[in-house]
Amino acid sequence: MEFANPGNNNSLIGNVFTKYRITSVSLNAGGANHVVRDNDISFNSGPGLSVNGPGSVIENNNISDNGGTAVALTGSGQRFEQNVVRNNAGIGVSITSNTTALVTITRNSIANNAGLGIDLAPTGPNPNDLAAACADGFPDCDTGPNGKQNFPVLDASSRWTASGVVLNGSLASRPSQTYTIEFFASRAADPSGFGEGEVYLGSTSATTDASGNASFTASLSGANPLGNATTGYFTATATDPGGSTSEFSQALQLSR
Question: The domain containing residue 219 runs over which residues?
Fold first, then answer.
């Protein structure tokens, strides 16, 4: 179902979109500040949801079991929050917008998709660019969707015990900036080794030093984020001060 030239400030709330043969919901070709909330977009033959309106908010939707990419976001200043994105035949959340775009992806459940859970174009995991690769001598200098924000790196010193999960890690990015680091647990890792994020665990902040490096430790309450599972895969994302979120980090396997 395509809403062509929809104008601004449209709301799509509380609907069920199932068994469409093309992109089930498309808010493209104009407009801004749309709200897509509390919808069930599932079991469609093609992709799930496509939104290119800048400033749009997509929250609390179920976007699962679709025959292509679950979500395609191409507008600057969008916010994708508290959605369930599972079992789709393509990428979970694809961001293909231009270099000025910033899309915040926060507190979602993203799991078991055929492609990456979060994919900043081009398709496939984007390696972190470190200081040695940057002309200005600081990490994370490349351009692209969400500035191709570097993802965090989780450290093997992290642990999962009877009292909860403690995740240690680092981030190399722009100097003297404060980033939001979000953490997730999954029963299985993506085949690429990066992501996904089945269960949102919480967040912390990390401020880079004058060289662009930061370390963090997050103590996350709840000993059973994956129910009775005793082995899990833990991942993280980084969101910069402007709201641009990275792809998922490489998954770290932990047992308790």
Answer: 132-256
What length does the chain have?
A: 256
| Residue keyed to tokens 């967040």 | 203
Q: Is the pLDDT of residue 161 over 60?
A: yes
Same domain, 137 and 254: yes
User: Measured between alpha carbons, how far is 49 from 116 in angstroms, rounded to an integer?
Assistant: 16
The per-residue pLDDT for range 61-118, each reduced to its tens digit, is 999 999 999 999 988 899 999 999 999 999 999 998 765 578 999 999 999 999 999 9
Q: Give the pTM.
A: 0.95
Q: Which of 140, 142, 149 is nearest to 120 (CA)?
A: 149
| Torsion sign (Cα): 165, 170, 176, 181 | negative
Taking only Cα atoms into account, the Rg of the chain, rounded to an integer number of angstroms, comes to 18
In the block, which residue shows the tokens 């963090």? 216
Three-class secondary structure of residue 147 per DSSP = helix
Among positive and negative, which fits the CA dihedral 178, 249, 99, 79? negative
Share of the chain residues as helix, strand and coil, in percent rounded to the nearest 5: 5, 40, 55
Q: What is the CATH number of the domain that holds 144?
A: 2.60.40.650
The CA distance from 103 to 178, in Å, is: 17
Same domain, 10 and 99: yes
Q: Is there a single domain that holds both residue 204 and residue 88?
A: no
CA dihedral (163, 165, 170, 171) positive or negative = negative
